[in-house]
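Example 3.2
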Amino acid sequence: MIPGFGSLMQDVLWCFSQVKGTIDVGVTEADIISTVEFNHTGELLATGDKGGRVVIFQREQESKNQPHRRGEYNVYSTFQSHEPEFDYLKSLEIEEKINKIRWLPQQNAAYFLLSTNDKTVKLWKVSERDKRPEGYNLKDEDGRLRDPSMITMLRVPVLRPMDLMVEATPRRVFANAHTYHINSISVNSDYETYMSADDLRINLWNFEITNQSFNIVDIKPANMEELTEVITAAEFHPHHCNTFVYSSSKGTIRLCDMRTAALCDRHAKFFEEPEDPSNRSFFSEIISSISDVKFSHSGRYIMTRDYLTVKVWDLNMENRPIETYQVHDYLRSKLCSLYENDCIFDKFECVWNGSDSVIMTGSYNNFFRMFDRNTKRDVTLEASRENSKPRAILKPRKVCVGGKRRKDEISVDSLDFSKKILHTAWHPSENIIAVAATNNLYIFQDKVN
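Structure, written as tokens:
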């Protein structure tokens, strides 16, 4: 039992490969989940994969007979968001992989979400249809035009009930604005604009205008040989539409204010922790690169994830983080082998719970970590089909570094680095989490009494 989020238990396990019609015959590259995102109410959960597909899960409504089914998520809609393309001018293949999904707040019966691959952002409308019109005058029931001479009477079209159908239609396509790969999209709190960030530039878009965007950050040097850092992530402030942050591969965070200047080349605040000379090594620059940055729901704090740690920064203190949590410090001695197998370049994400009191991030061996900010306690849990049966309580896992290993511990040398939890999401108001492990999506929730 961890104060702040209880004993997390698995409520329902969805094997993502089954959603796509295969029964784990073998994981293809296209089936690997690349992003996970709850909508603003938590009733919907969207996942994107490397095959360019988006799968939306909807939460079951509570029934009097089965109140415990309230937490279960079932497939609501599946659609192909992006297709592979080829840039003939640069002789480059553009992957269909979904890099990010962001929901817009619901304004009517339909849902809207943004999805992006490396180059193109799309705005999708997801709507339900349970009625169909019948009784057209100029068309027959199959949609073919009727001979006007055969029309002898005027009919009033009527709506007839039909089986519920969920339709996903692309409403806007925002393309041709990024030279480099898009790593972030973020919807502004004014809900009229959003931004997309690549390695060197951040663009501001209006939802109604697809053929032009406004460049708000440009760190590209005149001579590319002088390039020393790239943008790794960017996000708007949850309440102030003029404020946003972006992180860099040098481990720094810049807070920008769009009221100061149209082009935010000069930051309003600069967050950087001084390097400890005693920890300096060949890998220092690589592991200090920030892979994710997230504002807290309150807007007071920023959370950043680098390779070994999660840090929480106060917006009013730029010189050092107020909290630092070691995610997998036992890997510090393994950096050389992690560099050789490219794992050191993995980009882990991090998320807040609804009250900003607990933070979660992923690790290797299908482990994910939770840190309670109030009690300073932490837990390591595992998302695996062998250890996680529906309605079973997850047992905390421990990694052993030394020679002697207890029965319930796992040795650091036997960790599987091909199994990694890069993408997680937390329900905006409840203790329900979604964890993507390769091609499987796990949904866990607090124990239901």
